[in-house]
Design brief:
Largest sheet: 6 strands, mixed
Strand content: 15-25%
Shape: globular
Number of helices: 9
Distance between the termini: 41 Å
Oligomer: single chain
CATH class of the largest domain: Alpha Beta
Structural class: alpha/beta
Length: about 230
């Protein structure tokens, strides 16, 4: 077992716990392992629940690159994981029970559903090491808007779980003592429905993001007809 990333399969649910104290910093190897799980999930898996151990979600990632080649490999691993989080057939649920920073905040935000403890602190601190976080800005701006994206990355300021909900970075902030039970409810709700429908919703959201209004309406019309016909046959 790789203790850095603890994975348990429970039928349609896959639990993944980041377990690399004290900060649960991600390595390139952890990125590759999680990407592989997301792109090639176990048969019958429907929902992936991602959490952190030790009262921390994930305070970022290691930066071990010492050469241009190493840096390219590291960036490929990061991009691969970001893409896998968006395109995976699994429904991903982040349980952010403690602080998240940089890469860790991105892990939570790129999940399909993200719940956070109200008192957790989330940040993008790359500015403190003189770095403009280009990989973050590629997805953050559409999610929270230009001004919020600028403020969060230009200041590195940590925000509470409640503030993260307010700007649209997560779905919901709840008291820490209630977080696990609330995520239980979310997972149970999702597992009630057909994985195929969730896969189609995720696919359509990705496609709609690339279309203009007229193209979206045409695509939606065609998919609705096809979906209705398929439903009648079942």
């Amino acid at each position: 077992m790789n203790e850095d990333l603890v994975i348990h399969e429970e039928g349609a649910l896959v639990r993944v716990q980041i377990s690399r104290p004290p900060g649960n910093l991600f390595t390139v190897e952890m990125c590759v392992r999680l990407t592989t799980l997301l792109t090639n999930p176990p048969e019958g898996a429907h929902v992936l629940r991602l959490s952190g151990s030790g009262g921390v979600f994930c305070r970022g990632r290691e930066r071990p690159a010492e050469s241009v080649e190493d840096l390219h490999a590291e960036v490929r691993a990061l991009l691969g994981l970001n893409e896998a989080l968006v395109k995976t057939s699994l429904v991903t649920v982040a349980e952010v029970g403690g602080d998240a920073a940089g890469f860790g905040t991105g892990l939570a935000a790129l999940c399909d559903v993200a719940l956070v403890a109200s008192d957790a602190q989330l940040s993008f601190p790359e500015v403190t090491i003189d770095l403009a976080p280009s990989l973050v800005l590629a997805w953050l701006t559409p999610m929270v808007g230009r001004r919020n994206a600028f403020w969060l990355t230009a200041t590195g300021r940590a925000i509470s779980g409640d503030e993260a909900q307010a700007v649209g970075l997560v779905n919901q902030a709840v008291p820490a003592a209630e977080l696990s039970a609330r995520v239980d409810d979310v997972v149970a709700t999702l597992l009630q429905y057909q994985p195929r429908v969730h896969r189609e919703i995720k696919e359509m959201l990705r496609i709609f993001a690339t279309l203009d209004a007229d193209q979206s309406n045409t695509f939606a019309r065609d998919r609705l007809v096809l979906g209705s016909l398929a439903r009648r046959r079942t």
